[in-house]
Design goal:
By secondary structure, the chain is α+β, with helices and mostly antiparallel strands. It contains 12 helices and 15 strands. It comes from Marinicella litoralis.
Length: 448
């Protein structure tokens, strides 16, 4: 039922977003706007150059750089032909300050770099179609310079701004807007159903494939609007509530009238419902700190599980390492770089938190409350772990299997560190081997 809910939820979300996009493009109102009142609009690797002051970001660096977090936005050069950068520089700043724009197609690693632009162009509408755009492609020598006409560029999904001053200067940026100035010309006006365009049609029922098709058809090719079919005429959230009722009834029948398991189930579904709300995404920067506080409280209450375990859980370590090697050698879709090793320590911390919830908190309590063998408890925990990852179908399938394995491993060995190591390693390998079209994103809920 949660798989159906995921499909229905994402279909509705995509269709509504595309209809909104279609309406706005027809009204010449499909503007892309970033308010720089926090660092959330800046890609994290560029945040160090900037500080938040009031409702703007400011930098005192000599050559600050800023990359916008596109948040799924795609720039269509056929209609987006004007850029407005709102900001100011200190009076002491050199008058010959300049900046460059670097748009890119990250999927194909093609970069389009502007000529030097005067810092005096801040707060003025900049005609992007009037600029010369140097094309930089991977594997092509810089001596073979080529240039592109803005309106002939297919699509862009990243923007970096590089500022150059002869001395450190105070630069303040309030916002950036890429404006639609041209009408959208669709090759075919009428929408087309996903099942009509892609075979086998079953691919259109997988949310990850739906996301990929939507990106390719609606946001990149821009020739005909693609719509997703619904499974049933029932309201989207009816499938969610049916799942809540079924799981609650199951636990009531098996838990000897104990409310603990029911409360655990309801807590999982409340978390799922919340993470699918638009206001959560809008206010996530404010919610991060309460969530962090809850996690710290959870860690403190369960700190005794962080002690060295009695059982080494050797099979968990060996199976995780062996499976990772087999997957990387046999299924890796791109070269494995050092970034996997660099990401591992950070992901290991997050894996510890998840395994603390999956093992001591959920698996242990359910095993005490439900009259079931360990194998069945592992299945129940796997299902709960899976549905938390809605509406990401591929991630739901992967976490169903992984959740069952980790729950059973915990019930058998009670080794948090073995499970966390397995989780971090297999998750990073999974992201490495999955094709873009079949995963696309590890995000869940409204963020997917």
């Amino acid at each position: 039922m949660m798989m159906v809910f995921s499909h229905e939820y994402y279909s509705q979300k995509v269709n509504q977003a595309n209809q909104q996009q279609l309406t706005k493009t027809q009204q010449l109102d499909w503007h892309l706007t970033w308010s720089l009142d926090s660092k959330s609009a800046i890609v994290s690797s560029f945040e160090s150059d900037w500080q938040v002051v009031g409702h703007a970001v400011t930098s005192s660096e000599k050559n600050p750089e800023l990359s916008l977090d596109m948040q799924g936005k795609v720039i269509d050069p056929t209609i987006h032909q004007s850029l407005l950068v709102q900001g100011e520089i200190s009076q002491e700043a050199p008058a010959n300050g300049r900046f460059k724009l670097e748009f890119s197609d990250q999927r194909n690693q093609i970069y389009y770099v502007s000529e030097d632009l005067s810092i005096k162009l801040l707060n003025q509408d900049l005609d992007l179609s009037s600029l010369r755009w140097q094309v930089i492609k991977p594997g092509v020598s810089s001596s073979n310079e080529s240039y592109a006409i803005w309106s002939n560029i297919a699509f862009l999904d990243a923007l970096v701004m590089r500022f150059y001053f002869t001395a450190p200067s105070s630069l303040v940026l309030n916002g950036i807007q890429i404006k639609q100035t041209q009408a959208k010309k669709w090759t075919v006006d009428s929408p087309i159903n996903c099942q009509q365009l892609h075979l086998p049609a079953a691919r259109c029922w997988v949310s990850n494939q739906m996301r990929h098709f939507n990106l390719q058809q609606n946001l990149i090719l821009n020739n005909q609007l693609l719509v997703q079919s619904r499974v049933s005429p029932l309201p989207v959230w009816s499938w969610f509530w049916l799942s809540v009722g079924l799981m609650t009834l199951l636990f009531l029948l098996r838990a000897n009238k104990s409310l603990t398991t029911v409360l655990i189930t309801l807590a999982v579904f409340v978390a799922i419902a919340l993470v699918h709300q638009d206001w959560v995404a809008t206010n996530f920067s404010l919610l991060r700190w309460p969530l962090l506080a809850l996690l710290l409280i959870l860690l403190w209450q369960n700190k005794h599980w962080l002690a060295l375990p009695e059982h080494p859980a050797a099979p968990v370590w060996l199976i995780s390492l062996s499976l990772s090697m087999v997957l990387l050698l046999g299924l890796a879709t791109r070269p494995v770089g050092l970034e996997l090793l660099f990401d591992f320590p950070q992901y290991l911390l997050w894996a510890c938190v998840q395994q603390l919830l999956l093992g001591p908190v959920v698996s242990r309590l359910l095993f005490k409350q439900l009259n079931m063998p360990k194998g069945m408890i592992a299945v129940v925990v796997g299902v709960l772990f899976s549905i938390i990852h809605a509406p990401n179908h591929v991630l739901m399938a992967a976490t169903l299997l992984a959740g069952m394995a980790w729950s059973y491993a915990w019930l058998k060995y009670e080794n948090l560190y073995a499970n966390a190591f397995s989780h971090a390693l297999l998750a990073l390998v999974f992201y490495q081997i999955m094709p873009e079209a079949w995963l696309g994103s590890a995000r869940i809920g409204v963020f997917f």
